[in-house]
Amino acid sequence: MSDQTVLLEVRDLSAGYGGGPVVAGISFTLERGEILSLVGESGCGKSTLLRAIMGTEPDLCLLSGSIRLEGTELAALPPRERLRFVARRCGMVFQSPGASFNPIRSYRSQFIETLKSRGKYDKKDFLPRAEAALLRLGLKEPRRVLDSCPYELSGGMNQRVALALALLLGQELLLADEPTSALDAAIQLQAAAELKSLGETAGIAQIVVTHNLALARYLGGRIGVMYAGRLVELAPAGDLLEEPRHPYTQALLEAIPRLDGTMPRPLAGQLPGEGPALPGCPFFPRCSRAIPACRETPCTLAPWKGEHLLACCRAGEETP
Amino acid sequence: MGKYILKRMAHLIWILLAVSFLTFLLMYLAPGDAAEKKLNAQGISVSQEVLERTRQEMGLDRPFLVQYGDWLLGVLRLDLGSSYKDGFPVGEKLARGLGSTLVLALWSLLLSLAVALPLSLLAALHRDGPLDRILRFLSFVGNSLPGFLLSVLLMYLFCVRLRLLPVLADRSLKGLLLPGLSLAIPLCSRFLRQFRAELLEQLGRSYVTGAVTRGVKARYILFRNVLRNASISILTIVGLSVGSLMGGSVVIETIFRWPGLGKLAMDAIRDRDLPVIQGFVLLTAVIYVGINLLTDIAYHWVDPRVREE
After folding, report:
1. Using only C-alpha atoms, what is the Rg of chain A?
2. Is A151 inside any structural domain?
3. What is the interface pTM, i.e. ipTM, of the complex?
4. Quick check: B201 contacting A, CB < 8 Å?
5. Which burial class, exposed, middle or buried, applies to B256 when counting CB atoms under 10 A from its CB (0-12, 13-18, 19+)?
6. Which domain holds residue B125?
7. How many CB pairs under 8 A join A and B?
8. CB A229 within 8 A of CB A23
């Protein structure tokens, strides 16, 4: 694949920590500047997928499949080189903003050492560039922010500083793990708006892991729904939320509390535990529309309608 | 900051009062008699009469509180009194002992730090590797060996078997070697374990993962971040050890006949030499409090979070 618009291509990826795979059979592509939100309940493998792409955890091994970043196969690179290659192109935004920085050193010194490590430090234009990046993310006093330590700033500010550094580094892909869940409700929207604008104006592609379907809808782009380590539905945000096809996606949407007073319907049952995976659909035991064939027939993500991809053997049938 | 130091100094006064009163009381209650010891030391055969007279001369027949008050008044005039045993001013004796102890303490501390810092860093970086296992075993052994056994073993090896060093230490570099090693080996073993644990803790923090994902060079992560953050705990550990080193290691100084504070105190206790004991206790308390204060000041310097409080 030498397609210039494709930034990341994940094909049939399985990865896990020593035991069985935690994520399996994941395939998707991400274009430059595109936002992909990954949703699903806790333990479904969303964060593991992000870490497998980033490759910072030595315990997490790729079991099969491929990850191509800008056309380079990551699985083929030795670990150190892989890390360097990925770090040059991808930034990671963590759940707890600021936690990825040393709490007791100033942002200025941490910015400088990051830029120096990447051979991008220029003493003369560091300050104007850093200030411009911080201003762009709405930090009014960039000079003061640079001289502050992470522990001195609020969660929202720390989040913006992290994004500003990604901007300064010219990162092409941001992997964000629950970027807003540790923030106050009032600044969640602001943080979401910043992520969105980084995609739209700076052309930074993003994979955003979240529990929050409202955030996924707001970000636009595409939404991938994960269940038990598989991607079960992948579609443009609007399509997916208006016309959810997978029974799990439907159940997930029904489980959201609403302001109009309709009671949410929690999804019965639990995620499958460890042990050999079922040969068929992983959602089979909890699915209200399952037929005996679902237990045996493996289902893979396939186009259902246009860009709407679905992994359900009853895809062709009408929703009752 | 200045205000903070003054406050700590004010605490020191209460600590000194309490410590000196308790030691005075304990020595008063303890069996044995300074007058008898003094006369024995001078080789005079002791009759009850002479003993009584000497006790009166030394003021030992007065009530406890009067004796303590008398001593306290002396201290307020910066006079620690003079030794019962040889009549030398206590201040002079302490100063000489402190000098010797300082030399020994600094030497063994520097030796321990020079070995423990790089090795604990290597062990933490290669956790559960062969080096880490070997160091863990060695530091376990070094930690378990009591100082007196270690020093006797070292003496046997270097002085008796190899005949490389003198048994009795003098203040030359050669003389410093064995008492220094006897103090440094257990200290270094303790440092190794504690530094390693702290470094591992810091290496597991999310800021390290963050820096790795940003592509920050390992050198910067280690020396500018991990070591810097770990130095807060390391300072505490070192500060506490310096306190006990400066108090003089009684056992090691006695074994090597090192004329430091520990040996001074040991001899003074044997001779019931109350003024010297009291002076030693006061000095040790001042050293402990002083070093704690220095450690706290160092925190302010390293950790901006403390600076603000």
Report:
1. 20
2. no
3. 0.78
4. no
5. buried
6. 92-308
7. 72
8. yes
